[in-house]
Amino acid sequence: MSNSTQTPVNFFDQVTTLSNCVGNTPLVSLQRLPQLEGVDTQVQVLAKLEGNNPASSVKDRPAFNMIHQAEKRGQIKPGDTLIEATSGNTGIALAMVAAMRGYNMILLMPTNSTQERKDAMAAYGATLIEVDEGIEAARDQALQLQAEGKGIVLNQFANPDNSAAHYETTGPELWRQTAGRITHFISSMGTTGTISGTGKYLKEQNPDIQVIGLQPDDESSIAGIRRWPEEYKPEIYDPTVIDRTMDISQYTAEVYMRKLARTEGILAGVSSGAAAWAAIQVAKEIKDTQPDAVIAFIVCDRGDRYLSTGLFTAE
């Protein structure tokens, strides 16, 4: 017999807001790839699935934080126009947050970005301006629009709220999810917000943690990763927390992107393939000297943003 005095369930207690869905992404252990690559010890290789954020990338974290903190400081208010130069993921994330908070969004991005990225920005209602000359020119043009009074540039490359988002969320999550056992953190470097903020937090917990960054080699162009000219190097870049930088070719990044999909079931982008490659190389290097190492790398986004490129069907 049912208890008639039982308090009824309020289903709306389970409802949240979209902003509360940013972060707290899964950290999963690679099951097959390390062994197939010759890492047959107890070294753990872990992938942090940032594609599980609402707009499907690690950039949801800084996008929300940059807008949220600017609002708290009174620098912007709903109804304003925001401007940003982006290679893709930050633009999509900002377009989502702008729609959520009631801002107009102008995004400038290189013409060669994937169609899926352009379509996602438009779907959120952003105005897209394509720039032929690349991301450096897009950054310059964004600042020019601001000088003309067209809107306010958030400037992910110089905005401390970018790296702070990772210091306050990504770093603590990795520390908690590994029970403080993480020994290596690996991230591809674009704006460098992820590696600078996360690396700073992890180094404060244990200065022996190795923080490793990925950049393209001189001949390669990889979406989301940059080898910046000195005059365009992000102001938020913190070299003091980075122990090692590894160069990677576009070909190798694409190979490991496919390996993630075909051996682990993780459909991710090219920069994530680069980070997976680095994690495997580090695991090979230390498997005999640090058999209990815990290596975590960032899976920046989801691979469905790259399907039109044909990269997943290449060999």
Strand order of the largest sheet: 1-2-10-7-8-9
User: Do you know the CATH topology of the largest domain?
Assistant: Rossmann fold
- CATH architecture label of the largest domain: 3-Layer(aba) Sandwich
Class inferred from helices and paired strands: alpha/beta
Give the radius of gyration. 20 Å
User: Biggest sheet: strands, sense, closure?
Assistant: 6 strands, mixed
Order of helices and strands: EHEHEHEHEHEHEHEEHHE
Query: Low-confidence stretches at least 5 residues in length (pLDDT < 50)?
Result: none
Number of strands: 10
CATH class of the largest domain: Alpha Beta
Secondary structure tally, helices: 9
Mean pLDDT: 92
Description:
The structure is a single chain. The longest helix is centred in the middle third of the chain and has 18 residues, at 160-177. The protein has a six-stranded mixed sheet. A four-stranded parallel sheet has the order 5-4-3-6, sandwiched between helices. With 315 residues, the protein is an alpha/beta fold. Helix 2 packs across helix 6. It has nine helices and ten strands.
Question: Which helices and strands appear, and what pairs or packs with what?
Answer:
Elements: E1 27-29, H1 33-36, E2 44-49, H2 60-72, E3 81-85, H3 89-101, E4 104-110, H4 115-123, E5 127-131, H5 135-147, E6 152-153, H6 160-177, E7 184-188, H7 193-205, E8 210-216, E9 244-248, H8 250-264, H9 270-286, E10 294-299
Parallel strand pairs: 2-10, 3-4, 3-6, 4-5, 7-8, 7-10, 8-9
Antiparallel strand pairs: 1-2
List its traits:
single chain; 315 residues; alpha/beta; Rossmann fold; six-stranded mixed beta sheet; four-stranded parallel beta sheet; globular
